[in-house]
Structures are given as structure tokens and as C-alpha cells.
Write a structure and sequence with these properties.
The protein has 124 residues and is mainly alpha-helical. Helix 2 (24-37) runs antiparallel to helix 3 (45-57). It has helices at residues 2-10, 24-37, 45-57, 67-78, 96-99, 101-112, 117-122. Helices cover 56% and strands 0% of the residues. It has one domain (2-122): Hypothetical protein af1432 (Orthogonal Bundle), CATH 1.10.3210. The chain binds fe (ii) ion.
Length: 124
């Protein structure tokens, strides 16, 4: 969970723009290593390695074999409908749960409404 939640915060944090920026994942992986060296990530070295991998490769378009990385990428891909005209592509999802049509529909609705889940948690 620490890897997935840290991925949510960090994977696009080094974008230079919201358009084509194919190296943003690699820059995020460098940031992950820097934060780890400063003791600012809530995980052990194995988690840091997974988080680096998830960030570095998340723009690759394939489906990863490591379940934690798969969960990171699925969460990112399920949020893509936040961009006008973009739909979830089920063939790019890795986990069975993410591929369920009801879950894709709910994620699409949440992404288009730009609902930030923590807002619901902390301000119900
Ligand atoms: Fe990204």
C-alpha cells in the first residue's frame, strides 16, 4: 500500500507539461531515490525499488508482471478519463479487479468529476 499510495503522489510529479513529456517517469524515479536517501519514504529498500520501477516505466504501455507495479499502473490508467476525450482501455489494465466493467465505469465517473478521494475521507 505504501508503494501504491506513494506512486499516486509521485509518478507525475516531475512533468514539465501536461502534453508529451516521455521522460517524466524517469525523472520521478530519480526523485524517489532522492527522497529515499533523505529517509522521506515510508518503505524499505525493496519498496523503493518497486516504486522506482513503477514510476520509471509507467508510460511504457505494457502490462507489468509485478502485482504491486500492476496496481500502480492500473490506478493511473483508470484515472485517464480526467482528460477530455480519453477512455479507459481495458486491454491496458493488469488486475482482474480493475478490468471489471462496473469498476471501470465508477472510475471513469470519478475521474471525469475530478473527485479527489481524500476530500471525501477528510470532509465527508
Ligand atoms: Fe505519467
Amino acid at each position: 500500500m505504501d508503494v501504491v499510495s506513494s506512486f499516486a503522489v509521485l509518478h507525475d510529479s516531475c512533468r514539465r507539461n501536461d502534453l508529451a513529456d516521455p521522460r517524466h517517469g524517469a525523472r520521478a524515479a530519480v526523485l524517489v531515490r532522492d527522497l529515499s536517501r533523505q529517509g522521506l519514504l515510508p518503505m524499505d529498500e525493496d519498496g523503493v525499488i518497486l516504486l522506482e520501477k513503477a514510476c520509471r516505466t509507467h508510460t511504457g504501455g505494457r502490462i507489468p508482471e509485478v502485482p504491486t507495479v500492476m496496481a500502480c499502473w492500473d490506478s493511473d490508467r483508470l484515472d485517464l478519463p480526467r482528460i477530455a476525450g480519453v477512455e479507459v482501455r481495458v486491454e491496458w489494465l493488469g488486475t482482474a479487479f480493475a478490468k471489471e466493467s462496473a469498476f471501470v465505469e465508477a472510475a471513469t465517473h470519478r475521474a471525469r468529476a475530478k473527485v479527489f478521494p481524500y476530500r471525501q475521507i477528510f470532509n465527508p
